[in-house]
């Protein structure tokens, strides 16, 4: 977290929290609530980088952006992390620019989304990289048949090492990996005060 953020938290410890205003989509893009109640993509590069550096989780598995002294909870479209394939480094990189650690587990859900488990946590693969990753796993394509052929193997090779592979239901992901995809304010407290 940025030093300026840590100092602001010490100076103003009781700033109200914000819920329902910031969202992370399945492609790792930050979205902010607009005047019509929908969400629009944040396009300001400096702001996106600031959010990325100050993105964390609390003890209850709620992910947030620490905006100075104010904690802005994030609604997650799927997982707390979203990864892209970095062919130059033969690795996966999170939406915040962090390189994922050694892969511990690959998961495929019922809709064909691929998730990885590694440091810093569970991440969904950006759908734009799914075909390239399926090819690396030996699938002929990212179709249902290609996914089924990959799921028949308990271990697959990726980035030069064997990785266990399993199926998972999307609805089970938050519970299994201990995160809250839709943090809400305590009863009687507004989304933003």
Question: What does this molecule look like?
Answer:
The chain is of the alpha+beta class. The protein folds into two domains: 3-76, duf1285 like fold, CATH 3.10.540; 81-171, no CATH class. Helix content is 19%, strand content 34%. The protein contains five helices and 13 strands. The chain has helices at residues 3-11, 45-53, 130-136, 144-151, 173-176; strands at residues 18-24, 30-33, 39-41, 55-57, 63-67, 70-76, 81-86, 91-94, 105-109, 114-118, 121-125, 155-158, 161-168. The strands form two sheets. A seven-stranded mixed sheet has the order 8-7-11-10-9-13-12. A six-stranded mixed sheet has the order 3-2-1-6-5-4. It is elongated, with a radius of gyration of 18 Å. The model has no long low-confidence stretch (mean pLDDT 87).
Which tags fit this structure?
single chain, 193 residues, alpha+beta, duf1285 like fold, 2 domains, seven-stranded mixed beta sheet, six-stranded mixed beta sheet, 5 helices, 13 strands, 34% strand, elongated
